[in-house]
Design brief:
Length: about 350
Amino acid sequence: MVSSIPTSKTDRFRLGIKTPVQETLLTPRFYTTDFEAMAQMDLSGQADEMAAVLAELRADYNRYHFVRDQEFEQCWDQIDGETRRAFIDFLERSCTSEFSGFLLFKELSRKLKDRNPTLAEAFGLLARDEARHAGFLNKAMADFGLSLDLGYLTKHRTYTFFPPEWIIYTVYLSEKIGYWRYILVYRHLEQHPENRFYPLFRYFENWCQDENRHGDFFKVLLRSQPKLWNNWKARLWARFFLLTVFVTHTLTVLERATFYESIGINPYEYNQQVIQRTNTTAERAFPSILDTNRPEFFRRLERCATANQKLVEIANSQRPKVIGFLQKLPWIVVILWQMLRLYLLPPIDAEATRATVR
Ligand SMILES: [Fe+2]
Ligand SMILES: [Fe+2]
């Protein structure tokens, strides 16, 4: 997976620089948006809540958290074989997605500076946190003789355009699912310290609080825009994004089961817990959520993962393109069919629950 010695000046992968893994549907993406529309957002409906989340972000609770302590200062050759490969893959994916967040937030902060100072400040503070997270992960990769070329990633990744509404739904969810992913690993390793083979995991408790605060900011942003929750279209979008985030999560976790098993976590149980908690959390922001308690819910999600595994096997088999595509087609249909069935399950009305709680 590591590149060979560079042969020319233009070689972008220097010795020890990690070659980005093959881009697939599951690779973390880089996003861009309509900055003009973002700048014009009227936040007055949630002014107090926005002031509160901004104060939390300014407080910078984790200013001194991401400092590597003595436990890092040792040789990590004892982590070897499949565990090492799976762990490096985990570090790379995590670093890429933290860095993707950093780039988006930094750009938003820069573009909104003169036109929407409140949002610009918030995005600047979010970018600060994500830069720390990505940097900390990149240092962990360096312990294994690798590093992600973040400069190269910035310039050569393709950026996917999402309108502000989609950015708000998806980034809200990715922050909250990130929170649950980190905290559940942390709590598990607290109970089973014998599985904590590298000190990075000790940092997850405070780390995930950053993600939680980021999610809270996006929740306020979402609730400040009534069109994102007070109509039937918003309900359809909310469930659509929940479903796509949950399918992606299931596919990713089950494809990388080795990593979770290496720290003593059952990937199926972990996937279900992360999804259930994220779905319940989203009830506070989204107009409508999924009913994860239906017996078929996880069965269908896991069928998508099995089909995805077949797709991966076909992609790795080096068959001629046309044959590969024809072999993939039925499995793509399986995934789309399962997603459609999941999407059509009766949802939970989060606005009604919110009214009852009040
Ligand atoms: Fe982060
Ligand atoms: Fe975050």
